[in-house]
UniProtKB/TrEMBL annotation:
Matches recorded under SUPFAM superfamilies: S-adenosyl-L-methionine-dependent methyltransferases (SSF53335)
Name by which UniProt lists this protein: Methyltransferase
Annotated Methyltransferase domain residues: 45-137
Database matches in InterPro entries: Methyltransf_25 (IPR041698), SAM-dependent_MTases_sf (IPR029063)
Lineage summary: Bacteria, Bacillati, Actinomycetota, Actinomycetes, Micrococcales
Keyword annotations of the record: Methyltransferase, Transferase
Domain of life of the source: Bacteria
GO biological process: one example: methylation
GO molecular function: methyltransferase activity
């Protein structure tokens, strides 16, 4: 059982078109470059692989990729691009689903950890990532910094996109850390469509604590996939945690730290 929203067939069919900006080479190539470097000669596991926006080009770079995805309709869209022999996907939630093998890289992009709407599930997701990592492997998350810093007292909504085709804003409950993204789209016939998705927001420091609970060590944090330094006013982060090399050794065989 998961608290995540479920992407049905209609949402899955429209996903690539609605996220077209995220497929642009200038957006996608730095993501794939970074992940390919971190994966090295090992295999990569993508949580919430969706329609394969990142997994497929990473596979094309020569990295062995396995995916986990909750929505079967999203997997069906991915299957129109690549078959299961080349890119296997296990259907299930990213907090508890286990696949065979060890990975040098587990990654979760495009704010997707927020789809898990309880802190318990998010902690379990970090632990699931650690479970799949080989010693020395890395867990990478791409996540926005909550926009509540821009809300004046009494306001509960922050716009994140305003243009001729799309109006998007987030509403926040700062007590529960629950939020909803609202999307209004102008269709070609002039009509307006609406969609919404729910999330739980997490601060970077909370992510670090979840990683620590999972036995992972903080390695780096940048503001984006280009490696821009993370600052107090950064609106997103790409964070990397590492599974200790000695994690698989019995306690008596682990190097003693001073």
């Amino acid at each position: 059982m998961t608290s995540s929203d479920y992407w049905d067939a209609e949402m899955a069919r429209r996903y690539d078109e609605g996220s077209a900006a995220m497929f642009a080479p200038e957006v996608l190539e730095p993501v794939v470059d970074t992940l390919a470097e971190l994966a090295g000669d090992g295999a990569a596991l993508e949580f919430a692989i969706g329609t394969g926006r990142v997994g497929i080009p990473l596979l094309e770079r020569g990295v062995r990729v396995h995916g986990i995805e909750l929505s079967q309709p999203m997997v069906d869209q991915l299957r129109e691009k690549v078959d299961a022999t080349h890119l296997p996907v296990t259907t299930g939630d990213m907090a508890t689903t286990v696949v065979d093998g060890e990975f040098s890289l587990v990654y979760l992009v495009f704010n997707s950890i927020g789809n898990l709407r309880t802190q318990e599930e998010q902690v379990t997701c970090f632990r699931n990532a650690a479970r799949h990592l080989a010693p020395g492997g890395r867990f990478v998350i791409e996540l926005w910094v909550p926009g509540i810093r821009r809300m004046p007292p009494g306001q509960n909504a922050v716009p994140f996109n305003v243009d001729d085709r799309h109006l998007g804003f987030d509403t926040y409950d700062v007590v529960t850390q629950q939020g909803t993204s609202h999307h209004y789209f102008r269709n070609d016939d002039g009509s307006v469509g609406y969609g919404a998705s729910n999330f739980r927001y997490i601060w970077p420091a909370e992510c670090d604590l979840m990683a620590q609970l999972a036995g992972l060590e903080f390695e780096s944090r940048a503001a984006d996939w280009h490696g821009t330094p993370f600052m107090a006013d950064s609106e997103s982060h790409v964070s990397v945690w590492r599974k200790p090399v000695d994690a698989a050794l019995p306690q008596t065989e682990r190097p003693q730290r001073p």
